[in-house]
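I hope you will forgive my troubling you with a question about protein structure. You will find the record immediately after this paragraph.
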Amino acid sequence: MYIAQKRPDFTGTVDQIRAYQQISSLLKRNYCVYCLFQENDSIFLVEGEEVVRRGMESIYAKKTGPLYFAMLKSYLFKRYPLSTSLHSFPEIRRTVKHIMQEVRFDIIHIQSNMVHNFPDIDSWTEPVVVDYMDAISLSLERRYRWTSQLVEKTAMRGGLGRVRKYQSYLKGCTANGIVSSEADRNHLAPVTIEKLDVIPNYVDDSLFLTDIHIPKKTAVVFAGPLNQPEYADAAIRLVKDIFPALKLAFPGLECWIAGSDLSAEVKKLARVEGVVLIEEPEAAHKHVWEAAAYVCPLRFGYGQKTSILEAAALGCPIILSHIANEGIEFTSGKEVLLADTDEQFISKTKLMLSDRIKRLLMANQARSFVRTFFSEKRIIDQLVHVYTKVEKQVECNERERA
């Protein structure tokens, strides 16, 4: 049984996409998967096939009623992060208890922002895997160091305290955990290193079917979830601090910014000559495929960046920051070019734009790297291995108690 923050969806947020990928891949291997999630003040239990088909039929549905008090209690009194408090559903605890009395599951896979709803999780007889998904505290620490605005610093310091408090709560759980990148695991090492396995997100196999030898358009592109602060900051930095110098060197150059849920500040970028905003999700991959270079000047953030992996799979040459590369570990000069300062991004992007052979060679090598280390088969093999390991640990513990 998969307990998710929100309904899994391949067009949704990072946690929704991760859940959708894992569920759909397990179904392909003939595993029986059920998914429990909360939506519109109701709790739903649906079959995995229904998740993949994006259907609405459920096995079980129950109205929870208003959840404001539970959320406020979690945020104001327990002082958990807002991202966790928004997923406070007391009724889901009774629902899970009822379901587990009726059916035994081989594995309970639960996303980390849902764990606080189950203070009895350590007493469950079913094996439990907690999906930490990301190391939010790492991003907040970096953003706190980067910003010079007093109000933002104060907010970051408060948010960081809340995240660390919740991580301490998770530390007390005996459940095994998975996380999306080695960088995240290293950051969370003080929390529970011996129980964390790395299970990345994978790249859809269909992206590798595109022809990377097509003539590229005179454009640089940046794509990703622009509703997240680190992506919005990177888009603004690219347009205001990097693109003008590139435009001087290549007068016909365009800058494509692809993403949905754009903030007002990001939308203003369209006023800059040569900048095009792409808000339709289905058009993002097309523009990444056609662009001469994917430029990713992230200054803060954490974990594995799926949009970068997708750019590599689509054959778009990549220039990115060391922070953006942490969860992937490309080799600079082989699969990608690494840069951190504006001057480095400008010079390395110029180099990529002016050398077609270099673009093609690096694009091929990046694509091969992603196909090797972030394919669906490899990642789901790793996930199933974790499930098997956790099951054996529980069986061993039960024998010792007996």
Summary: The chain has a mean pLDDT of 89. Residues 376-401 form the longest helix (26 residues).
